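Support reply, case 0932

Customer input (verbatim):
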Amino acid sequence: MTTRRRLQAEDLLAIKLAGDCQISPDGTRVAYVLQEIDKKKNEYTSSIWLAREGSPPVRFTAGPRDTQPRWSPDGRHLVFVSNRSGSNQLWLLSMEGGEARQITRIKGGVQNPVWSPDGRTIAFTANLTEAGIQPEGGDEDDQDLYRKYTKDVRVITRLHYKMDGVGFYTDERKHICVVDVDGGEPRQLTFGDFNHLDVSWTPDGRGLVFAANRREDRDWYPGHVDLWYLSLSDDGQGQRSSAYTPPEGPGPDRCEAAEETQGNCMPVRLTPGDGTLACSSPSASPDGRMIAFLASDPAESGYGLTGLYVLDRSSGEIRQLATDLDRPFGNETTGDLVPPSGGRLHWSPDARWIYATVSDGGQVQLVRVDAVTGEVWPVTGGDRVVYAFSLTPDCCRAALAYATPLSPGDVYLAQLDEPQPVPPVSSAGTVLRGGGVREVRLTDHNAELFAELELTVPERFQVSAGEGEPLVDAWILPPVGREEGKKYPAVLEIHGGPMAMYGAGFFFEFHWLAAQGYAVVYSNPRGSQGYGHDFCRVIRADWGNRDYADVMAAIEGAVERFPYVDGDRLGVAGGSYGGFMVNWIVSHTDRFRAAVTMRSVVNRWSAMGTSDLGYDRLRQFGVENWWEVDNLGPFLKQSPLVHASRINTPLLIEHQENDMRCPIDQAEQLYAALKYQRKTVKFVRYPGESHGMSRTGKPWHRVHRLRMIAEWFAEYL
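Our regenerated output:
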């Protein structure tokens, strides 16, 4: 019998993540993206693979970074995005063989290809300046050189001028373009100082629907995203282009009736434009009468639920579906492995059903929703996180990519017309019952690695902060090699957001700590998504109260219920909002022997002016002028920094220097306050990294971070 080994931090570099699975129109093949790590180059690579039932998957492209495969309507071609020419461009492959053909050469790069219904044209978004489409490469004149060597200078005039993971905004905007598959130059369809996202075709091929914030005050209200329709014309040569010609000077963002009848029309707004909906993912029904889309209330600042809506194109009426579900559509889970995701809303051929994912009590399931009654039927079931899906046009087959507590994720072929119900997982929060279809596993890219590893299985339990308080889902991951009768230290992990949820996926950090001999306790306290609107919203502008009670109930519940947990050797760790909670905990109790706070918030007042989304959170505090002395109270009340004199727990502070969500000054303020008091504290800074380093940062930085966490707990627990 082969002896299994414990997980090592370096094993992170060997994990392969499969996703963005796209099923062919006939349902026989699945194209998907496989993301890997080149540890010698310290970078990520991705390639496109093909899988079919009964055969091992085959690598279809060579990389080094090929993504977003999309089938033509007849299944004879595959378009994808590749950086093989030096920047992200569209490439076309014939399924009958031959080399890939480059079909765009646009300076700034392109992304998100979408086939027209007749397969003649591909719409996509490109990063364009006011100059419009410019060819990639070529000779550089003085203006090009000036731009090239002064682009590091930032002249800022906008309120919303940076975004974590993106950096400082440039003068490029995402515009919709089209290119003909048989040749010809790409053509720009949208213009102006706006970003245009989530492009989809109408079934007649005569128009595009997309999401955009085209308000004049969009910097003040970045979440006010509407749906828009752009009509297309035919120039007589089979080439589609926008019926709209951009004006030479500034003009109103609307369409006059006279212009519309002549076909010379700007994008037409489909949703109210009153700031009540933040829209995304539009998808037109097969008969063209309805548009399904996802939306949330931007005034909720993330504490609301993402809902499923349908818009009647003839009347303009908008209806929300599944209003009784009280769960968010989409994937709200958080983790440290981020596979290629994907999954557009998908209509059944008769326009009766809409397929989507729902986050429910730590699980993410594929569901179908009745477009008339709003009734929700689960398609999948069990402990899983579905992070990518696609369906055949007849909705008989689907490609699924999902993770489980013991698998980072693989691709499956599901026969939707062959139900195989699975028993529901007991949880305080799940409302979806039933589900399950016949599935065939198509990939197992981590089989060799996981065959070597000794892993433990998380156990779910429930806790309550007190009488009359809600039940909260919690899990414990036992330490590897646990011996009967022996006590082990435990680490309480707290997720970020807070509007997210721990789910039934594979969390590398947790398994890494379990391999070091720790029990790992984690929970979805109030403020988490996946448990209903009230459960999430109750901590809005009230961090450190009910959520604090819930996470403390989770660790005390674990000590009480699991005899192997040593209640005298406890640690706590968390990132982002989870880091806030760590800071709050150690400034309000000495229950823990050691703590790790990562990319955290310590001063909610200063974050209003330094975070990329700081000012957008103002409204939840009920104030506007945060800089005025009389308005400091609500912010300082929820700032752990003001309680720094009460922190006695040895604290490791980890932060990324390019973090624009929780800027590095947050960590600097806490470190200075503690070090000045000669408290036990260590500060680790990661240069060039953004807020999401633990998930998508430089691979060896991620390994270093894991080692630092383990070393800190080993020293003090």
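We compared this against your earlier run and they match. Two observations from our side: Residues 528 and 625 are 29 Å apart (CA to CA). The chain has a mean pLDDT of 93. Please reopen the case if you see a mismatch on your end.
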